Structures are given as structure tokens and as C-alpha cells.
């Protein structure tokens, strides 16, 4: 069975989700690692470009 991708998040949507997450939970090491992994997966599957990945990762504090 092959999964088909039905839409994907835009840079703006991802930025807003990251910002909401930080506002609710703070930028804990766990939250940062989960977001970095999620963004890496999107990059790996070609759903975001490297420049989008870099801009979104800039929102994640260095832990």
C-alpha cells in the first residue's frame, strides 16, 4: 500500500504552529527536539525547501 500525501503545511502555518507551541509550553528541550525532527521529516520528504527549513529552525532556540 502506498500512502498519498494530501496537502502539506505551508511555511506560514508551520511558523504559527511553532509560535503557538512556544507560547503554551515554552521552548523546552523536548519541544525543540520534536519540532526539529518534524521539520527534518518534512525536508526529507521534499515537502519543504531547505531555505524554509532553515528559517523555521531559526525559531527554535539552541538548547
Q: In words, what does this structure look like?
A:
This protein has one domain. Helix content is 62%, strand content 0%. The chain is mainly alpha-helical. The mean pLDDT is 90. The longest helix is centred in the middle third of the chain and has 16 residues. Helix 2 runs antiparallel to helix 3.
Question: Short summary of the structure?
Answer:
The chain has helices at 11-25, 29-44, 50-57.
* Poorly predicted tracts of residues: none
Domain count: the total is 1
Order of helices and strands: HHH
Helix content percent band? 55-70%
Structural class: mainly alpha
Mean pLDDT: 90
The fraction of residues assigned to DSSP E strands is: under 5%
What's the N-to-C terminus distance? Answer: 39 Å
Amino acid at each position: 500500500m502506498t500512502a498519498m500525501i494530501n496537502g502539506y503545511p505551508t511555511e506560514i502555518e508551520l511558523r504559527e504552529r511553532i509560535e503557538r507551541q512556544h507560547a503554551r509550553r515554552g521552548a523546552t528541550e523536548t519541544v525543540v527536539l520534536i519540532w526539529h525532527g518534524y521539520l527534518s521529516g518534512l525536508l526529507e520528504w521534499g515537502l519543504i525547501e531547505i531555505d524554509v527549513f532553515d528559517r523555521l529552525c531559526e525559531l527554535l532556540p539552541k538548547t
